[in-house]
Write a structure and sequence with these properties.
single chain, 248 residues, alpha/beta, Undecaprenyl pyrophosphate synthetase, binds farnesyl diphosphate
């Protein structure tokens, strides 16, 4: 791949999460239907997955469909589901060749059965891969994720398997959809809006957040590398002072 002089390959963020926003406005600017924007957005997905994999990012979480997106017009929801299924079918060979492991998180039973079965097949086929984990957030909502986790924890407490005092960050982490994945280091939202939209509410506590004005269909490899360079220029203090960090 073309490398950019300013990127430090020894300090690549372990987990990058992206809110891929702006497909609809990108299409409207071109007097095209919204699905035209989503289709162009798939090309950005392909580009960014390839770049993440080549740069050594360990986990890339993409917010592909939120729990709120079910409220969109039926034709747009259907179009997105069909794009997702086509993407999964077309990309499987590439994922296998590039050592990419596919995972997903969200309220998966709400997905159409043919999307779910394609997802399950691709996840099973790539489960042994050790390169990039491509984690798709589908029918995902951060609050719903926390609610289902809390319900499971409460049931364990009621059954006497867990004491309330034993509930700590690790217990909560282990009951989220994202169990087993590290927290995101860098969270990018494209499309010019500056909000989280119910994405990774627990996990993003210490993520560096980058709001990019670029619409998702225009967010390609170069923009992704620029986002990582921006991340590398930040000082992550995790509540400490800069002086404490420099003192080690
Ligand atoms: C938000 O843009 C984007 C989505 C709701 C869907 C994102 C989906 C893709 C990029 C394609 C399918 C995904 C994969 C992984 C193959 P928006 O429609 O809200 O844009 P707007 O804010 O400009 O209206």
């Amino acid at each position: 791949m073309t490398r950019h002089a300013e990127i430090d390959l020894t300090r690549i963020p372990c987990h990058v999460a992206i809110v891929m926003d702006g497909n609809g406005r990108w299409a409207e600017q071109r007097h095209q239907p919204r699905l035209f924007g989503h289709r162009a957005g798939v090309e950005s997905v392909q580009d960014v997955v390839a770049a993440a994999s080549e740069l050594g990012v360990q986990v890339l979480t993409l917010y592909a469909f939120s729990s709120e997106n079910w409220k969109r017009p039926v034709a747009e929801v259907g179009g997105l589901m069909s794009l997702l299924k086509t993407f999964l079918v077309k990309e499987l060979d590439k994922m296998l060749n590039n050592n990419v492991r596919l995972t997903c998180m969200g309220d998966l039973p709400r997905l159409p059965s043919e999307v779910r079965s394609t997802l399950e097949q691709s996840m099973a086929a790539t489960a042994g891969n050790s390169g990039l984990t491509l984690n798709l957030a589908l029918s995902y909502g951060g609050r719903a994720e926390i609610i289902q986790g809390v319900q499971r924890i409460a049931r364990q407490c009621l059954a006497g398997q867990l004491s309330p005092e034993a509930i700590d960050e690790e217990v909560i982490d282990a009951h989220l959809y994202s169990a087993g994945l590290p927290d995101p280091d860098l969270l990018i939202r494209t499309g010019g809006e500056a909000r989280l939209s119910n994405f990774l509410l627990w996990q993003a506590s210490y993520a560096e957040i980058l709001f990019s004005p670029i619409m998702w269909p225009d967010f390609r490899r170069r923009a992704f590398v620029d986002a990582i360079v921006d991340f590398q220029g930040r000082e992550r203090r995790f509540g400490k002072t800069g002086a404490q960090l420099r003192a080690g």
